[in-house]
Prior knowledge:
Blueprint: E1 4-6, E2 13-16, E3 27-34, E4 50-55, E5 60-63, E6 71-78, E7 88-92, H1 98-182, H2 184-194, H3 200-204, H4 208-211, H5 215-221
Amino acid sequence: MGITVQNITGNTAMVIWPKTASCADSFYSVMYHPNWNSMLSSYSRKSFQKEERVPASRSSFVVENLTPLTTYIVCVTCQSANPSSDQCRVFNTLERDPASASNTKKELALGIWLTSSVLLLIIAAILLYGCLHLLCRRRHERLQGRNGTSKQDHGKAWTQSTAYASEELGRQSQLMQDTEEKHPGGIQLATIIENPSACKEPVTRTSKSQERVPTTGQRSAI
């Protein structure tokens, strides 16, 4: 068939063949396999690693994803027929292309950068959530502390007011007792003067001897 292999690189190769009349209404089968020594025993289609179908209107095909520095055998047949020796060619791939190596490095660097960016975003989100949770917790504790302090202050104020009222009541009662001890009749006379209507009838029934109240007692009561 006059098969030729051109533009060989470390990963690709172009296979060219002449058109045949028997494949005008069908397709071409391009089969290739590495380590061609294992193919010397037979040229069965099952022995090839890969097979590509190409339309009959084309007479070339670019084989891709090859391994650098590897010997390949490629065969072209019509309608997936088993190839013969005159339908195959052997070629060797070159070293890895600098351009493809740089592209691989760029893709690797891009993948690492994307992975690290995603991890940093996740870590930042976790830290932000932790900080917000800690701030809310501290604020809640402060509010609880203020409420407890205000309750304690209110209780102290109520206790102080109660104690003050008790002390004041004790002072008044003590003052009244001291006054009664000093002037026992003066307090009764003062009570009668404050409520004359309540003691009006008993006063009229008293004798003349009882109506005479010492002048000193009256003055002191008034």
